[in-house]
């Protein structure tokens, strides 16, 4: 083999696997020239998904959130198991079990590839789709920062340790957010995404009758709301789904926070934002409950901040052709 022929291949492999701190900045105009209709393409697919799946928007935001908390916003959560590629999927971690919406992401990627081949990363698709989901549910969008590239690795162990759990106390949640550079206001505002979507009963049943092994209900749970939940989650109904927001379940608004004030937060990780005496997060819950505009401002700012967690940019990572698997490496025959 002539060294001159092998050199481009060696350089490409080096570029794909070199990990370095990135100084490149994300920006909202990143695809203005290469894919100018990108936001409208993504929004149209999300709109179509919502016609048959009211939870489509919540699924997309969950993917973006769970992506950014593990190795940064690099699309790694979308990778499925592959022995050949050495991928042990983050979707196998407890915090991702049952995660849904892969079909919606695949539909968006197909539409984007048809318009702008090999240009837009899956990580950026998650960011844009999250914004579209909020807008289509009646919320206010934000200036989505773009220019991320996709990882060629997954981090299952990171997903196990880094993802917030629905069972966790406030102190644990605060630490996990701080570990990725997000503060307590970000914790409260981003939790406001639970203003739409659903949860399976298994994630809150312990609050209904045997909270922390006491044999009693969670004292921070409104008794009337508890009775509603007991009816929705009978014995054997672990996988039944309940709206995270019992008031306006499919709308993006600030009712999540008024629910917390009424002790009607569904998950432990929801209600702990308001109920513990002296909790620092109570101030933000009250602010967002009092003003939907204040919540929208804070949510957009926190989404931008979260979207900037350790993105791959410039020559790091790749633009995946299929979001669920890494691109095949080129061979010398391709050179």
UniProtKB/TrEMBL annotation:
Subcellular location(s) per record: Secreted
PROSITE patterns, A to Z: PEROXIDASE_1, PEROXIDASE_4
Keywords, alphabetical: Calcium, Disulfide bond, Glycoprotein, Heme, Hydrogen peroxide, Iron, Metal-binding, Oxidoreductase, Peroxidase, Secreted, Signal
Binding-site residues, heme b: 194
Marked site: Transition state stabilizer: 62
Record: residues binding Ca(2+) 1: 67, 70, 72, 74, 76, 90
Domain of life: Eukaryota
GO molecular function, one term: heme binding
Binding-site residues, Ca(2+) 2: 195, 245, 248, 253
Disulfide partners: 35-116, 68-73, 122-323, 201-233
GO cellular component terms attached to this protein's record: extracellular region; plant-type cell wall
Binding site for substrate: 164
Reaction catalysis annotation: 2 a phenolic donor + H2O2 = 2 a phenolic radical donor + 2 H2O
Record-annotated Plant heme peroxidase family profile domain positions: 25-327
Pfam families, sorted: peroxidase
Signal sequence range: 1-24
Residues forming the catalytic site: 66
Cofactor(s) named in the record: Ca(2+); heme b
EC number: 1.11.1.7
UniProt record, GO biological process: hydrogen peroxide catabolic process; response to oxidative stress
CC cofactor note: Binds 2 calcium ions per subunit. Binds 1 heme b (iron(II)-protoporphyrin IX) group per subunit.
Cross-referenced InterPro entries: Haem_peroxidase (IPR002016), Haem_peroxidase_sf (IPR010255), Peroxidase_pln (IPR000823), Peroxidases_heam-ligand_BS (IPR019793), Secretory_peroxidase (IPR033905)
Family: Belongs to the peroxidase family. Classical plant (class III) peroxidase subfamily.
Entry function: Removal of H(2)O(2), oxidation of toxic reductants, biosynthesis and degradation of lignin, suberization, auxin catabolism, response to environmental stresses such as wounding, pathogen attack and oxidative stress. These functions might be dependent on each isozyme/isoform in each plant tissue.
Classification via PANTHER family: PEROXIDASE 58 (PTHR31388:SF147), PEROXIDASE 72-RELATED (PTHR31388)
Name by which UniProt lists this protein: Peroxidase
Protein species of origin: Cucumis sativus (Cucumber)
């Amino acid at each position: 083999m002539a060294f001159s022929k092998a050199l481009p291949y060696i350089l490409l492999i080096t570029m794909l696997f070199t990990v370095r701190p990135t100084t490149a900045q994300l920006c909202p105009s990143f695809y203005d020239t290469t894919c100018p209709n990108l936001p409208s393409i993504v929004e149209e697919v999300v709109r179509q998904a919502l016609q048959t799946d009211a939870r489509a928007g919540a699924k997309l935001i969950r993917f973006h959130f769970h992506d950014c908390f593990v190795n940064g916003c690099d699309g790694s959560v979308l990778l499925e198991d592959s022995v050949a590629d050495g991928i042990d999927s983050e979707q196998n971690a407890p915090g991702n079990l049952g995660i849904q919406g892969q079909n919606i992401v695949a539909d968006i990627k197909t539409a984007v590839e048809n318009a702008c081949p090999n240009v837009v990363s899956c990580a950026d698709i998650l960011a844009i789709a999250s914004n579209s989901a909020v807008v289509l549910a009646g919320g206010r969008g934000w200036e989505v920062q773009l220019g991320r590239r996709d990882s060629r690795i997954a981090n299952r162990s990171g997903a196990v340790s880094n993802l917030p759990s629905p069972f966790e106390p406030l102190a644990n949640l605060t630490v996990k957010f701080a570990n990725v550079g997000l503060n307590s206001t970000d914790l409260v505002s981003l939790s406001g995404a639970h203003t739409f979507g659903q949860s399976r009963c298994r994630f809150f049943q312990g609050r209904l009758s045997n909270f922390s092994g006491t044999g009693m209900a969670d004292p921070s749970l409104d008794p009337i709301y508890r009775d509603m939940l007991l009816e929705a989650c009978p014995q054997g109904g672990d996988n039944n789904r309940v709206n995270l927001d019992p008031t306006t379940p499919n709308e993006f608004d600030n009712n999540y926070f008024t629910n917390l004030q009424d002790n009607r937060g569904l998950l432990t990780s929801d209600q702990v934002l308001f109920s513990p005496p002296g909790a620092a997060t109570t101030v933000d819950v009250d602010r967002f409950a009092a003003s939907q505009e204040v919540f929208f401002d804070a949510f957009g700012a926190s989404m931008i901040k979260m979207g900037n967690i350790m993105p791959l940019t410039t020559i790091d990572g790749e633009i995946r052709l299929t979001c669920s698997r890494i691109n095949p490496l080129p061979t010398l025959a391709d050179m």
